[in-house]
Amino acid sequence: MYFWENYFFVTRSEENYIKTIFHLGDNSSDLVSTNAIAEQMDTKPSSVTDMAKKLAEKGFVNYKKYQGVSLTDFGINTALSIIRKHRLWEVFLVEKLDFSWDEVHEVAEQLEHIKSEKLIDSIDALLDFPKYDPHGDPIPSKDGKFMERHKQLLSDMALKTEGVCVGVKDTSAAFLKFLDKNRIALGNTIKVLEKEDFDQSLHIQMEGKELHISHQIASNLYIKKND
Amino acid sequence: MYFWENYFFVTRSEENYIKTIFHLGDNSSDLVSTNAIAEQMDTKPSSVTDMAKKLAEKGFVNYKKYQGVSLTDFGINTALSIIRKHRLWEVFLVEKLDFSWDEVHEVAEQLEHIKSEKLIDSIDALLDFPKYDPHGDPIPSKDGKFMERHKQLLSDMALKTEGVCVGVKDTSAAFLKFLDKNRIALGNTIKVLEKEDFDQSLHIQMEGKELHISHQIASNLYIKKND
DNA sequence: ACAAATTTTTAGATTTGTCTAAATTTTAAT
DNA sequence: ATTAAAATTTAGACAAATCTAAAAATTTGT
Q: Relative to the CA of A191, which of A32, A82, A90, B34 has its CA 20 to 30 Å away?
């Protein structure tokens, strides 16, 4: 990847756009709108248009006027490399520096832009090649492959079924802190005991104890069903 | 230092100027010239003038037209905080990720700009609060204090005196690789056996073996004399 | 299908950090 | 003490990334 770090310079701003387009595109191949990008990045649509042209010129996106943008293969690879760095740094912060999962995002947003292939590969090795980040999101490998776990929202699980909590949908500090306070953590075994029709809240069994949780919470927790 | 990371925003460019002014100022309180800064940073004197005004406005330097700049106390603290980060990251790269001492500078130049007090303090703790970086330079503590070792250049040592190699003056990759190739490393015990008047080269004893080194090399190695 | 609402783009301006070329100040030399 | 040389600053320009306001295209509602 000599190419990357030297010949083809990508600015921090470009990287942030590419990452955002990747997340909004959500592996479907349809176009992402200027407005959606602007809203997500807290910027103006006109700024997005300018950047869309630049990214198209550099080969990261296909841009159709008035339609939106989609990442090229090159753009997807670039996005995956940034996401890989972001998530590996998050694991590093939690595993090696005892950050809590609600503190890692901000710092990883900075660290993901550090340009050194050797650095991130060494971090990967130091962490023993983790497959998931502290929020349960998959970490792309060096060659851009990653395994999306077969998982479902707790709110979508059938009565009496059991599984392991493997991820969060909402990664806001507020939600993560709430989970900590209620001893809900990744790896916990959860069984749906009862569903309340009225407000769609759930009675669950988690690690032995019984718990009542709102729909809002249940619809932001990912569960991997037991085989 | 809440102040720092939020209220008072320092750009990466400003940080690089502050760092350069600190190094050129070399703890003497006299002014650093525009030209010197420009040369060191591979930029133009006119650019330095512009930045000098901005840094003065923000309180980092005292700027006297046609005379030069010197850091204020605030500027010195800022410089020490950047240098602290740079050197701690260098130790991290060597100690935890097995980088060699000639590979760390480039990456540390990027990492030193990451803004998170918790991050750098955690790295500091992880490394067990090192006092010196891989090149033997002192690491400022959180409150900006650091101990400059009592040391001298190998080329300035008297005949028959002995000491420990504690640092390098030239930190270029070329020099560091040369030292590696010749098994010269920090911590080695060195004794001056003979000095050649003609070219000022030295015969030394290092860790048992005898070695002939040029003045160029000897004048870039720091030795701490044995008590 | 057509007018209204929404989305997107264009045009022109701003900020940051840089440059070149010209003007000014300081330093050095005789 | 003048003048020549060197260093420094000013003025004006440029690229990147952003903004606002206005224009153009698309979508929506009836």
A: A90
CATH fold of the domain at B152-225: SH3 type barrels. (2.30.30)
How many Å apart are A62 CA and C20 C1'?
A: 37
Q: What is the mean pLDDT of residues B44-48?
A: 98
Q: Which residue ranges make up each domain of chain A?
A: 2-71, 152-225
Mean of all residue pLDDT scores within chain B: 94
Residue among B19, B45, B23, B22 at smallest CA distance from B34: B45
Mean pLDDT of chain A: 94
ipTM, two decimals: 0.92
Residue B158 burial (10 A CB sphere; 0-12, 13-18, 19+): exposed
Angle in degrees, CA B69, B74, B77, rounded to 5: 105
Output the pLDDT for position A6: 42
Residues 6+ apart with CB under 8 A from B171: B105, B135
Chain A residues within 8 A of B122 when measuring between CB atoms: 97-99
Domains B2-71 and B152-225 equal at CATH topology level: no
> Which tens digit of pLDDT belongs to each residue from B178-187?
999 999 999 9
CB contact (8 A) between residue A111 and residue B114: yes
Contacts of residue B14, Cβ cutoff 8 Å, sequence gap at least 6: B51, B54, B55, B58, B60
Asked if the Cβ–Cβ distance from A116 to B126 is below 8 Å, we say: no
Spatial CA neighbour of A164 closest among A180, A151, A147, A183: A151
pLDDT tens-digit series, residues A193-222 = 999 999 999 999 999 899 999 999 999 999
Question: Quick one: average pLDDT of A60-89?
Answer: 97
Domain A2-71 has CATH 3.40.50.720: no
Helices (H), B58-187: 73-97, 104-111, 117-126, 173-181
pLDDT reported for residue A26: 81
